[in-house]
Design brief:
about 45% strand; single chain; mainly beta; 13-stranded mixed beta sheet; about 350 residues; two-stranded antiparallel sheet; 19 strands
């Protein structure tokens, strides 16, 4: 049970309490005098969400028992599977030393105006998070015997998760013969030793095995967009997006360590070592600005106009797969079960005064 005193202990800081930032800017004058270097750092604190507390409070010993099926079949889990003895009630608890997650962020960047038409900007970002919320079963079996036989899983929410991120982003703004060009490329590496607040590790007594790519890590991201006029008052803005796939975890589909959690991985296979396919997508935005004189208005105010807009997302209706199955015993192993949105067209009208 979670008592009000627990919330007072946990929520001792606001999300931006104790935040500080220092920034140093220095202009390095080359022959053109257009090279700028800047940097900054800060420490930020995350909040303990009410939904997290409600989940902990709702998972008490009053919950019913669970029946565990060993080596379930598919699609009928009872086909070939063995039903074990009902698991004693499982509970969730908060660690006594729970504290707010802390994230240190440092950033260095440069801005260089190559000439009147081209500007380059590079940004390096480092993030290190500590005390993130994650869970482990402190009643996991040892030699197939639970330390406290009166309970099943005792899921303890701790402040022991660690994250780390390195990223470099290169931006380019250019203008060539009436065409505005913008490109943005990002190379990133994100690691963590947990998936989310309530996911349990494969080995509750060796959580170092969970360190691997973050669930949302995308190594490469490229965005390229253009903006130009095809006719008078008609603007076209096509854009191209290319992103590497999200990682997913490969599991055996069996409960090899008998902890009643089916997240066991093959030998020497880490968390989030599988990768989905790359995302490719082309979007187009059209804008047609019509002066009010086309509608019989005699006013000379050029600011008054009607704007017709069309946004076409995923112009070529590319299939971008996601949510890959990592269970080796599943007939869908290595295949995606979802796809990102198909082509869509949004039309809009706006008035300018």
């Amino acid at each position: 049970m979670v008592y009000p005193s627990d919330f007072n202990r946990i929520k001792q800081h606001d999300g931006k309490c104790c935040e500080f930032e220092a920034e140093k800017q220095q202009k390095l004058h080359s022959s053109s005098g257009k090279f700028v270097v800047r940097g900054g750092f800060g420490v930020f604190y995350e909040w303990f969400e009410e939904q997290t507390a409600a989940t902990i409070a709702g998972n008490s010993a009053r919950q019913g028992r669970n029946a565990i099926i060993i080596n379930p079949g598919f699609p009928n889990p009872l086909a070939g599977g063995t039903v074990s003895q009902p698991l004693p009630p499982s509970v969730s608890r908060l660690a006594d030393d729970l504290r707010n997650p802390q994230i240190f962020v440092a950033q260095n960047a440069f801005n260089y105006k190559l000439n009147k038409l081209v500007t380059l900007e590079g940004i390096y970002t480092f993030k290190r998070g500590t005390h993130h919320f994650r869970s482990r079963d402190i009643n996991a079996p040892v030699n197939n015997i639970r330390p406290n036989p009166d309970f099943g899983r005792i899921q303890l929410l701790e402040s022991s998760g660690v994250t780390r991120e390195h990223s470099f982003e290169l931006r380019t703004n250019a203008y060539y013969k009436g065409v505005n060009i913008y490109s943005n490329y990002q190379l990133a590496k994100q690691t963590a030793d947990f998936s989310d607040s309530f996911s349990l590790p494969m080995d509750n007594y060796n959580i170092r095995l969970e360190r691997g790519p973050s669930n949302l890590e995308q190594r490469h991201k490229l965005n390229l967009s253009f903006n130009f006029d095809i006719l008078k008052n008609i603007k076209v803005s096509p854009s191209f997006k290319l992103e590497s796939g999200f990682p997913y975890t490969i599991t055996t589909g069996r409960d090899d360590n008998r902890d009643t959690v089916f997240n066991d991985r093959p030998f020497a296979i880490g968390r989030n070592t599988g990768r989905g396919e790359w995302l490719r997508q082309v979007d187009v935005r059209l804008q047609w600005k019509l002066s009010m004189k086309y509608f019989g208005s005699r006013e000379k105010n050029e600011k008054r106009s009607i704007n017709l807009n069309a946004n076409i997302r995923n112009l070529f209706n590319s299939t971008n797969l996601t949510n890959y199955v990592g269970v080796q015993t599943s007939p869908f192993f290595g295949r995606a079960t979802l796809a990102r949105p198909a082509r869509s067209i949004d039309l809009g009208v706006s008035f300018g005064f």
